Automatic annotation (TrEMBL):
Pfam families, A to Z: 2OG-FeII_Oxy, DIOX_N
Alphabetized GO MF terms: gibberellin 2-beta-dioxygenase activity; metal ion binding
Catalytic activity: gibberellin A1 + 2-oxoglutarate + O2 = gibberellin A8 + succinate + CO2
InterPro entries referenced in this protein's UniProt entry, alphabetically: DIOX_N, IPNS-like_FE2OG_OXY, IPNS-like_sf, Iron_ascorbate_oxido_reductase, Oxoglu/Fe-dep_dioxygenase_dom
Superkingdom of the source species: Eukaryota
Taxonomy of the source species: Eukaryota, Viridiplantae, Streptophyta, Embryophyta, Tracheophyta
GO biological process terms on file: gibberellin metabolic process
Protein name: gibberellin 2beta-dioxygenase
Domain (Fe2OG dioxygenase) ranges: 206-307
Keywords from the named record: Dioxygenase, Iron, Metal-binding, Oxidoreductase
Similarity comment: Belongs to the iron/ascorbate-dependent oxidoreductase family. GA2OX subfamily.
EC number(s) on file: 1.14.11.13
Enzyme class, spelled out: oxidoreductase
Length: 352
């Protein structure tokens, strides 16, 4: 719900969008109109839920320069994964040059006209559906994500030569981040007493994904219940995020939402649903979201460590908390829930 006067005023302000921006207003006009005539004021819970300014938190910051020599470093990674589900890493081995080049190429591709981006098959040789924006199944503003993204299978990257050096930059970025993701996954497996090649065998380059995100300014925020990315957990083993210094990422800790303070020198790592299930609930896949900014756009790049679609996720502890399921089955259930309910349900569907 929203306060009527504020939203109506916001809707009447100049939009300031150009040909590169998705047509959020036009496409979701019915949702904005419905919200604008809503007579009730936001509940206290909604006021907190959509607060633009929350108390900041800094997830554990871990220096990986001593990773091979120090057992303490590995223990810090495991502890953060148990207690936070999120942590930051510095001295991670990915050069500043690669990160900055990735950001430049990302900005360049999002600056392309919207009509060109939606034809990404011809534009970039990505698979159909790689370019995404908004929330097609949204039935209210709370389910709308004010963002656009290229969600790209790594198998697509080598052929994406339609936009200058984007392909080679994505390939280099994904290669270095992939090494880091596998190393972190192995550390977490070892902490649970599993010294195996599980992740090397099941999470290959062609099973993982790279997602480039852009969050355009949303002039109506915080007058409307619009997220940059609605609250969710990640449907993978691990996510590694490279973000700019604009801020907007928020996470749940001890039942409360906190704003993650941006650290330009760190990468964000978070546990995904598959790792929570595989660890039998030891590691936490934590709900998080992105809030919009009324004036400034935000960029981020995320690497998702995923297995083959037929990989069966089995809880490694006893008694198991979750039933066995394949990654394919999990993805299909998430898609079905989003289509029917407007939001993800996730792991609760697979509890024993």
């Amino acid at each position: 719900m929203v306060e009527t006067t504020n939203l109506l005023e916001a809707l009447n302000q100049p939009v300031g969008m150009d040909s590169s921006d998705p047509p959020f207003y036009e496409t979701y006009k019915a949702l904005f109109d419905k919200a604008a005539i809503e007579e009730s004021r936001p509940t206290k819970r909604e006021q907190v839920m959509f607060a633009s300014s929350l108390e900041e938190c800094e997830p554990p910051l871990i220096d990986l320069s001593q990773l091979d020599e120090s057992r303490d470093c590995k223990s810090e990674i495991a502890r953060a994964s148990r207690e936070w589900g999120f942590f930051q890493v510095v001295n991670h081995g990915i050069s500043r040059e690669i990160l900055e080049r990735m950001r430049r190429e990302q900005v360049k591709v999002f600056r392309q006209p919207f009509e060109k981006k939606i034809n990404e098959v011809k534009f970039l040789n990505f698979s159909s559906g790689s370019y995404r924006w908004g929330t097609p199944a949204a039935t209210c503003l709370k389910q709308l994500s004010w963002s656009e993204a290229f969600h790209v299978p790594l198998a697509d990257i080598s052929g994406s030569d339609g936009c200058g050096s984007l392909s080679s930059t994505m390939e280099q970025f994904a290669g270095t981040v992939s090494d880091l993701a596998n190393k972190l996954a192995e550390i977490l497996a070892e902490d649970l007493g599993h010294k195996s090649d599980y992740f090397k065998e099941n999470c290959l380059a062609n099973t993982c994904y790279l997602r480039m995100n852009r969050y355009p300014p949303c002039p109506m925020f915080p007058n409307s219940n619009v997220f940059g990315l609605m609250p969710h957990t990640d449907s993978d083993f691990l996510t590694i995020l490279y973000q700019d210094d604009v801020g907007g990422l928020q996470l749940v800790r001890d039942g409360q939402w906190f704003a993650v303070k941006p650290n330009p020198d760190a990468l964000i790592v978070n546990i995904g649903d598959l790792f929570q299930a595989w660890s039998n609930g030891v590691y936490k896949s934590v709900e998080h979201r992105v809030v919009t900014n009324p004036r400034v756009e935000r960029f981020s790049s995320a690497y998702f460590l995923c297995p083959f679609h037929d990989t069966v996720i089995k809880s490694c502890g006893q008694p198991p908390v979750y039933r066995n399921f394949s990654f394919r089955e999990y993805r299909q259930q998430v898609q079905d829930d989003v289509q029917k309910l407007g939001q993800k349900v996730g792991l609760p569907r697979f509890l024993l």
